[in-house]
Fold this protein.
Amino acid sequence: AQSVTQPDIHITVSEGASLELRCNYSYGATPYLFWYVQSPGQGLQLLLKYFSGDTLVQGIKGFEAEFKRSQSSFNLRKPSVHWSDAAEYFCAVGPGGGNKLTFGTGTQLKVEL
Amino acid sequence: GAVVSQHPSRVICKSGTSVKIECRSLDFQATTMFWYRQFPKQSLMLMATSNEGSKATYEQGVEKDKFLINHASLTLSTLTVTSAHPEDSSFYICSASPSRDRETLHFGNGTRLTVT
């Protein structure tokens, strides 16, 4: 069965500091990996996705993520965080083809000014 | 592109009544849509897969008679919470993927249901 682990429930960073949100997955085949962001009371917005090819993927809002098969990880990074990045971040894995996703428990990001 | 619209964004209903939530794909057709439920400060849990023109597929533990799903057209799926109870209060989110990008799910903005 597929699963996603986001070990950090809460993270606080200062504005302008770098950010890394961790994501580990368990999947029997080549995974399709996603990062979504959710603002309070809102739906999910896709930040980036990885299917194949270059293991470092670029997303919107200056985010990037690196797929490391040997570590079963897909960590999200941003070199300089902005106050507007405060939100909940979800990592997800799925089989692709528009099929259902399995989500991690999310990481709540707080940005200190 | 690939916009998913959900309505209403918030609804408050009395215990015992039914509530219908609509999920529309605005600029693409979706033969499959997914309904998720999110409890406060928790992750999204898949409730069911909505299939256009056929019965929905429910995840284990989800009552199909409680959460009625209808996917009557390629752009609309509805979730009806029947005989709602306070424990049904939650955030419900739908998602779908366009055929031109079938690998990616796009989500609606969710519906906050409060049952009093």
Summary: Chain B has a mean pLDDT of 92.
